[in-house]
Amino acid sequence: MKKTPNGRPEVGMDTVTPIEKNRLPFVVGSQFGLNPRIHDLEGFFNGEKYIAVLAKSLLSGTVNGLHIYHIKEGETHINFNAIAVFR
Questions:
Q1: Any domain includes 10
Q2: What is the extent of the structural domain holding 52?
Q3: pTM higher than 0.70
Q4: Distances (CA, A) of 44 to 35, 51, 61, 86
Q5: CA distance 80 to 12
Q6: How would residue 32 be classed by pLDDT, with cut points 50, 70 and 90?
Q7: Counting beta carbons within 10 angstroms of the beta carbon of residue 38, is it exposed (0 to 12), middle (13 to 18) or buried (19 or more)?
Q8: pLDDT of 43-56, one tens digit each?
Q9: Helix (H, G, I), strand (E, B) or coil at 83
């Protein structure tokens, strides 16, 4: 696995799109949208998956929470009203 100079694994766009068991794509959501911009990523909406979104204000630095969203097969966008609930 390729690593950055500080020893952490390098994360590229190709690591965000695969559907993997026990792993969630992680993005930061702010008042400016999602980063990385997954709606522009070719192949991101490639099947049913869950996605983790850290809700953060980039102006104040305040973290509002971590939300898990469910993307269903055939969807082409994130339904922000479809928060996943695990019991």
A1: no
A2: 28-87
A3: yes
A4: 13, 11, 27, 23
A5: 24
A6: very high
A7: buried
A8: 888 888 889 999 99
A9: strand
